[in-house]
Amino acid sequence: MKKLYSLVAYLVCGLVAVQAGTMVWAHSGMFQWVAAGGVLDKAAIESSDSLTFDGVQGFMIHGMNGMMVIPSVAVVLLVLSFFAKVPHGVAWAIGVAVLVALQVALGLLGHEFTISGLFHGVNALVLFTVALLAGLRARG
Fold first, then answer.
1. Is 39 left (phi over 0), alpha (psi -120 to 50) or beta?
2. 50-83 in b/e burial notation, b at 16+ Cβ within 10 A?
3. How many CA within 13 A on the CB side of residue 52?
4. Rounded CA separation 55/12 (Å)
5. Structural domains in the chain (count)
6. Taking the chain (140 residues) in consecutive chunks of 10 residues, what is each chunk's mean pLDDT?
7. How far, in Å, CA of 22 to CA of 125, rounded?
């Protein structure tokens, strides 16, 4: 059970890395598209058909991964923590779950308050670190 706990904690780390990669992929493609004459305005955002740049899928992957996959994995880690008998494993799993909830909230707030994006990025690094330490804790 400790190995499974560790594996799920590391899975959170991997999924956070996917989040970073997909956002950079999407933004790089968007910036190249705009530089080539693409127009990014409200109409383009509301009509997904007009956003045809390479990497636009990164936005979708980032949203689905962040809103559904990572929260589900965090819940699995929390449930496992009660059975894995990892020292302070429940506390680490609660930390991951709280940081994931904060991450989702910051991501949603970013649609209204741009400064939220700054905290969203920093919190991602904290989440990665806490999940990594949870996984390492199970191994030690």
1. beta
2. ebebebeebbebbeebbeebbbebbebbbebbee
3. 5
4. 23
5. 1
6. 96 98 96 90 79 90 97 98 96 98 97 95 98 92
7. 15
Per the listing, tokens 């990497």 go with 55
Residue 93 tokens read as 């799993």
118-126 contact pairs (CB < 8 A, 24+) = 123/99, 124/16, 124/19, 124/20, 126/99
| Structural domain for 114, as ranges | 2-139
Contact between 31 and 139 (Cβ < 8 Å): no
Count the neighbouring beta carbons within 10 Å of the beta carbon of residue 27. 13
79-108 pLDDT, tens digit each: 999 999 999 999 999 999 999 999 999 999
Q: pTM for this one?
A: 0.92
Rg value, the chain, Cα: 17
- Separation of alpha carbons 27 and 9, rounded Å: 28
**Looking at residue 140, what DSSP letter applies?**
-
What whole-number distance in Å separates Cα of residue 59 and Cα of residue 44? 14
